[in-house]
Description:
Layout (H helix, E strand, L loop, with lengths): L1 E3 L1 H7 L2 H11 L6 E9 L10 E10 L3 E9 L11 E9 L5 E6 H20 L6 E5 L5 H11 L5 E5 L3 H11 L5 E4 L3 H7 L2 E4 L18 E4 L12 H6 L1 E4 L2 H4 L4 H8 L8 E3 L1 H5 L13 E4 L4 H13 L2
Parallel strand pairs: 1-6, 7-8, 7-10, 8-9, 10-11, 11-14, 12-13, 12-14
Antiparallel strand pairs: 2-3, 3-4, 4-5, 5-6
Amino acid sequence: MKSIDAEQVHRICEFSRLIDRLAQLHQQPTDEMRDLLLTQPAAAASPEMNNSFFIRAAWQHDRVMGAKIISIIPANSATNLPVIQAVYVLLDGQNGLPLAAIDGTVMTYYKTAADSALGARYLARQAVATMLMVGAGAMAPYLIKAHRAVRPSISRILLWNRTTRGAVDLAERLNNGEIEVEAVENLANAVKQADLICCATRTTAPLIKGQWLRAGTHVDLVGAFTPDMREVDDQAIRRSRLFVNSRLTTIGEIGELMIPIKNGVINADDVLADHYDLCQNKHPGRTSDQEITVFKNGGGGHIDLMTARFIYEHS
C-alpha cells in the first residue's frame, strides 16, 4: 500500500488537471456512498464552534472504494493547528486490496476547491473579472486558485472575513504582484462589485443577501455542511438558478437548501442540475449573461473518492 503525504498531494494536484479528471469521472456512477457524522456541542452556545467527526465512504463498484476520516475542531485555529484534519484510505473496488493511505487534510482542500471550480466552469460567465472571497480560512487560497484556473480572466480579488485582521493577513500573503488582492470591510458593497462570489464560512445566519446580487453573478457556496447552516438568504435563493454538486449530498442534507424548501421558498425541483447532469451534457448550465447562478458545493464521499483516485493514478 502506498503512503502519499501532504507534499506529494500538493505536487500532484495541479488544478487544471484535477478539474478535468473530475469532469471525466462524473461520467461514471458512484454506486454507493454513506456518511457518519458525530457532533460534540461547544461549551459556549455557539454552533459554529461545535466539534465534528465525519466518516465519508464511497464505492464505485469494480473500480475503487474508500473512506475519509475527518475531524473538524474550530478551536484549533487559536493554536495554529488545522481546523480540518483527515486521512483517506483507498482500496481496490473488486478485491478490497488497500491501495493507498493519503493525507486527507490537504486532499480535502484540493477536492473541495476543484469541485467548486468545476461548477464555475459551467455556471460562471466567461468574462469574470472580480471575485469576492467570503471567509479567510484555510480553504480560501485553494478556492481562489481553483476558480482562477477555470476563469483566468479574474484580475481582482476582494476578501471579506468576520475579523478584518484575517482578511488583511490573507491579502498580504496573496499579494505577489500577479493579481490585485484587497481586504474589504463592507460586505454589501463588495457583493455588488463581484462577478463571482465564493463563500467558505461556518455561519448559521445568512451572510449574502439577495438584494445585493447584480445580474450575471455566480455564487459558489462551500461552507454550510449541516442542516442548520446557510450562507445566503431566501431572496438570493429565489432570484437564482440553483445547481448542486450532487443532489444526494445537498437537497436533504444541508440547511442551505433544506431550510428554504421546508419554508416553501423553493422546492426540490428548483435544483436544476448537479455535476453528473452538467458533465454528461444533460443540462447546459448557464444560458445567459444576465442570470444569477447559485452552486451549492455539498462535498460528499464521491468527490473524495474521485480525487483520491486521481492522486493514486499520478503517484
